[in-house]
Amino acid sequence: MGTDNKRKARKNLANQQKIFNQYRPRLQAIAYRMLGTIGDAEDMVQETFIKWLSVSVEEIQSPQAYLTTIVTRLCIDYLRSSKVRHEQYVGVWLPEPIVSHFSNEPSELVELADSLAMAFLVILERLSPVERAVFLLREVFEYDYDEISRHVGKNGANCRQIFRRAKQHIEVNRSRFDTSLSQQEQLTRKFIEACEQGDLPGLIDLLAADITLWSDGGGKVQSLLKPMQGGTKVARFLIALRRSKLIPNYDSELVRVNGQIGIIYSLKGSVQNVVTFEFIACRIRSIYFVRNPDKLRRISDSFSSDIDSSS
């Protein structure tokens, strides 16, 4: 009898793992957009899995709904607890970038590029944890209000109000990505060329007049402590930065960053800077520099592995 019970327990565990793995990509997608960091998102998904193992599958009417509720509430709680850490962060806090090779873009990233873009995630940071959850679940993942109300612990009417308020805030601050990927690539290549050649007029011509440059060094490497605005000012800064002896001759590579065209700058195989953009009307409206080594470690490991495997 003991052996039968053990066999049954192993079978139940395998079944639970199979069900969970079916929904893991969506849970990861929700958690990353909520939190903006891959490691924290993975932690929330793992904690969701642990909670999942503590329930009986037979008692769960909808595993997807149950798991979505768990991961959403874990993320909300985490955001509330991490507010102080964000407030104490040195300089600008930017989401951890998801980088893939230019020719290797997963199709799901292309399809969801709008909701993965750095500019979009930065705007989400201005919403409260519950507003962020409601907006993402409705706008990106297309849950109905009854489902959302269960996920966040609010009634349906309240969720509608929260969504409307969040959407208004997003729309005021968000530009639609009316620049195609091919146009993004062309503009990015021109950006690299203008910076490398010190072409100030050419660089100014690529930038929107009201451009903002954001730089996240986390207090661990040199970076701007607050955003810089204005096309001419940003262009002069970038040219001066390139000419400065503080900046080595980095290798640059065109990549996809959160589904959009971006650049990685590396030195001896170690990624030093990830750059991505927000485009509007074939101009660069925002530039995001992620330089915090903690947010580049996964990328450095991935790209150095690629280099090792190709050598």
CATH architecture of the largest domain: Roll
Radius of gyration: 22 Å
DSSP strand content: 15-25%
Query: Order of strands in the sheet with the most strands?
Result: 1-4-5-6-7-2-3
Tell me the structural class.
Answer: alpha+beta
CATH class of the largest domain: Alpha Beta
Number of domains: 3
End-to-end distance, in Å? 56 Å
CATH topology of the largest domain: Nuclear Transport Factor 2, Chain: A
Let me know the largest β-sheet.
7 strands, mixed
Helix content: 55-70%
The total count of helices amounts to: 13
What coarse outline follows from CA principal-axis ratios? globular
Q: Mean pLDDT, nearest integer?
A: 89
- How many individual β-strands? 7
> Uncertain segments of ≥5 residues (pLDDT<50)?
106-110, 305-311
N-to-C SSE series? Answer: HHHEHHHHHHHHEEHEEEEH
Features:
311 residues; Rna Polymerase Sigma Factor, Chain: A; Arc Repressor Mutant, subunit A; 3 domains; 13 helices; 7 strands; 59% helix; globular; disordered C terminus
Describe what you observe in this structure.
This protein is α+β, with helices and mostly antiparallel strands and 311 residues long. It folds into three domains: 1-88, Rna Polymerase Sigma Factor, Chain: A; 118-176, Winged helix-like DNA-binding domain superfamily/Winged helix DNA-binding domain (Arc Repressor Mutant, subunit A, Orthogonal Bundle), CATH 1.10.10; 181-310, Roll (Nuclear Transport Factor 2, Chain: A), CATH 3.10.450.50. Helices cover 59% and strands 16% of the residues. The protein is built from 13 helices and seven strands. The protein has helices at 2-35, 38-53, 63-87, 107-111, 113-116, 118-124, 129-140, 145-152, 156-173, 181-197, 200-206, 231-243, 293-310; strands spanning 99-101, 207-216, 228-229, 251-257, 260-267, 270-280, 283-290. Strands 1-4-5-6-7-2-3 form a seven-stranded mixed beta sheet, with helices on both faces. Helix 1 packs across helix 3 and helix 7 (129-140) packs across helix 9. The radius of gyration is 22 Å and the shape is globular.
